[in-house]
Specification:
The chain contains one helix and 46 strands. By secondary structure, the chain is an all-beta fold. The N terminus and C terminus are likely disordered.
C-alpha cells in the first residue's frame, strides 16, 4: 500500500464582515399601486450570517424602499414618437419639455414613458434635492449621436420597469460629445440611480458602458440584459444587487464599483437576485470591498473572476470561471502587490488584502490561481470548491499571508507545483494529497476512515495532480485511506459517494503535511 507523503491541516479565518449578510428588496406592481417586497435571496448553505437588513443598507446607500411607492394619480404620461412626442395635458410646462426628439424632465415627480424614438434622447435635468421617478412602460429609445438616457442632475433617479413590459435603450457606436465628463453609457446618471420594477430592460452599450452611475447604484429588481463594448454595469460609490435577474456581457469589466478617491466608497454587494457575467476582463470588481451575502452570482467568462482589496462571502452562491485568478484579493488603496495572479515562486510580504468566507457556496474553475489573496485568507463556514490550474506556475490556493480554516468544507484541486497548505493556527484538520501523475477530469477521489466509512467524496472537473481537503469530518491525527473511483452522486465537486468498485491508492494522516512549494505553507 502506498502512503501519501503530504497531508493537510486546514485552518479557519474569522470574517470581519462590515455587511454581514443581506435581504433582497424587490418591488411589485399591482394595478396602479406599488408596494415594496422583501425576499430572502438564494442561500446555498446554512451559514451563520444573517442577511443585511434594509435599514442597514439604507444607512449606507441612497436606497429607500419608500421611493418605490407613489400615488398613481400624480404620474405624468409622456408618449414618445419620432417627431411627435407628447406630454399629458395639464402638465406644468416646467416639468417636461419636448424639443424635437429630446424630452427633458426638469422637476421632481413620477413620469411614465411609453412609445419609441428611433433617434432621440430622454434627459433628466432636475434640482439637486429632487427625486425623479421614471416608469418605462414599453419604451424603446435609441440614439445615433450619444446616450439615449441621461440623468444630468437630480438627488436620485429611479428607473422603474413596469410589470409585463419590455423596454430597450441603445446608444451610438460613436458619440458626438467625447469630453472627459460627457456621458459614456446607454443608461448614464450623474446622480444616485435605482433600477426597480418587475418588467424587463435590454441595454446595448455600443460605445462604452452599458449602465453607469457616477454616484451610487442600487439594482432593486427587474429582468435586465446588458451588452456593452466596455464595462457592463458600473456604480462609482457602490454597486448593489438586491433582487432581479441581471445578465451582463462586457468587453471589459462586468459589474463593478470604481471609486478610488473617497474613503469607504468603491464597494460591491450582492444581496439577492441573480447576476450572470461574461467579461473580457474582471467579472465582478470592487476597489474596496466585494461582498456576496445572498443570491446567486455567476461569472461565466473572465480574466479574473472576483477582484477587490477585501472579498467576503457570507451566504448565497458564487460560481467563477476565469482565464487567470478565480478570486483575487489585490489592488485597493494600499496598491497591488500582484494583480496578475499572486506571488508566483518568489517571496513577497503580505499586504492589507483579505478573503473571508463564513458561509454560502463558492465554486472556482481557474486557469491561474484559484483562490488568491495578497494578504490573508480565512474560511470558517460554507463550501469552497476550487478547480485550479493544470500548470505548475499557479496553485489552487495562493495566499501571501496565512490561510486559516476553522470550519466549512474546502476542496482545492489543481497542479502540484505550487500547492499551498493552510497555516498552523487552523483549528479544523484536513488532508493534502499529491498524486504521482495527474488524474483526468471526472475522477472520483474518496477518503474512508478506519472503520471504512466514506468521509469525503470529490469529483475532479478537470485534470488535477493534488487535492487539499478539509471538513468537520476530518480528525487531526487520524489515518484515512484514499481511493479513486467508486460511485459519486455529483458530476463534479463535493458530494456523497460509495466505495463500490473503488481502487485503494494509499493512506494519509490528517494534520500532517509537507511544506508547500508555493507561498502560504506553514
Amino acid at each position: 500500500m502506498r502512503r501519501f507523503r503530504t497531508a493537510l491541516s486546514v485552518t479557519a479565518l474569522a470574517l470581519a464582515a462590515g455587511l454581514a449578510g443581506c435581504s433582497a428588496a424587490g418591488t411589485a406592481s399591482t394595478g396602479t399601486s406599488i408596494t415594496g417586497t422583501t425576499t430572502s435571496g438564494t442561500a446555498a448553505s446554512s451559514g451563520t450570517a444573517e442577511a443585511v437588513s434594509l435599514d442597514t443598507l439604507a444607512a449606507d446607500t441612497h436606497y429607500d424602499a419608500d421611493d418605490l411607492t407613489w400615488d398613481a394619480a400624480s404620474e405624468v404620461a409622456v408618449t414618445l414618437a419620432d417627431g411627435a412626442s407628447t406630454v399629458a395635458s395639464g402638465t406644468s410646462s416646467d416639468a417636461v419639455k419636448v424639443d424635437g426628439d429630446t424630452a427633458t424632465i426638469s422637476t421632481a415627480g413620477t413620469y411614465r414613458l411609453s412609445g419609441s424614438l428611433s433617434d432621440g434622447q430622454v434627459v433628466v435635468a432636475a434640482g439637486e434635492e429632487d427625486v425623479v421617478r421614471i416608469i418605462l412602460d414599453g419604451a424603446d429609445i435609441n440614439s445615433s449621436t450619444g446616450s439615449p438616457f441621461v440623468v444630468q442632475s437630480a438627488n436620485e433617479a429611479i428607473v422603474f420597469l413596469e410589470d409585463g413590459t419590455s423596454n430597450t435603450l441603445s446608444d451610438a457606436a460613436t458619440y458626438s460629445d467625447t469630453a472627459e465628463d460627457a456621458p459614456n453609457a446607454a443608461l448614464y446618471s450623474q446622480a444616485d440611480l435605482t433600477i426597480a420594477g418587475t418588467g424587463s430592460l435590454t441595454v446595448d452599450g455600443n460605445y462604452s458602458d452599458g449602465i453607469s452611475s457616477k454616484d451610487g447604484l442600487v439594482l432593486a429588481a427587474g429582468t435586465v440584459k446588458v451588452d456593452a463594448a466596455d464595462d457592463g454595469i458600473v456604480g462609482k460609490d457602490y454597486a448593489v444587487l438586491l433582487d432581479g435577474a441581471y445578465q451582463v456581457t462586457a468587453g471589459d469589466d462586468g459589474f463593478k464599483s470604481d471609486n478610488e478617491e473617497d474613503e469607504g466608497r468603491g464597494w460591491v454587494l450582492i444581496n439577492g437576485g441573480t447576476l450572470n457575467v461574461s467579461a473580457g476582463d474582471d467579472g465582478i470588481k470592487a476597489f474596496n470591498t466585494l461582498t456576496v451575502a445572498a443570491g446567486t452570482a455567476t461569472v461565466e467568462e473572465s480574466e479574473e473572476g472576483l477582484e477587490a482589496q477585501h472579498i467576503m462571502i457570507s451566504d448565497g452562491t458564487a460560481t467563477v470561471t476565469s482565464n487567470d485568478d478565480g478570486v483575487n484579493a489585490s489592488g485597493g488603496s494600499t496598491g497591488s502587490t500582484d494583480s496578475q495572479g499572486g506571488m508566483g515562486g518568489g517571496e513577497m510580504a503580505a499586504g492589507d488584502y483579505t478573503v473571508e468566507i463564513t458561509g454560502g457556496s463558492l465554486t472556482i474553475n481557474s486557469q491561474g490561481d484559484g483562490l488568491d489573496s495578497n494578504g490573508n485568507a480565512t474560511i470558517t463556514g460554507g463550501t469552497v470548491v476550487v478547480n485550479g490550474p493544470t500548470n505548475d506556475g499557479n496553485g489552487a490556493l495562493d495566499v501571501n499571508g496565512e490561510l486559516v480554516v476553522n470550519g466549512g468544507t474546502v476542496a482545492a484541486a489543481g497542479s502540484s507545483g505550487m500547492a499551498v497548505t493552510p497555516g498552523t493556527s487552523s483549528s479544523q484538520s484536513g488532508v493534502q494529497l499529491t498524486f504521482g501523475s495527474a488524474l483526468p477530469a471526472g475522477t472520483t477521489i474518496q477518503l474512508a476512515d478506519s472503520s471504512g466509512a466514506v468521509v469525503a467524496t470529490f469529483v475532479t472537473a478537470k485534470q488535477a495532480a493534488s487535492l487539499v481537503f478539509s471538513s468537520a469530518a476530518i480528525t487531526a491525527g487520524e489515518e484515512y485511506t484514499v481511493y479513486t473511483g467508486g460511485t459519486a452522486q455529483v458530476t463534479s465537486g463535493v458530494g456523497d459517494g460509495t466505495l463500490d468498485g473503488a481502487q485503494e491508492q494509499g493512506t494519509v494522516t490528517a494534520g500532517e503535511y509537507t511544506a508547500a512549494r508555493g507561498p502560504g505553507g506553514r
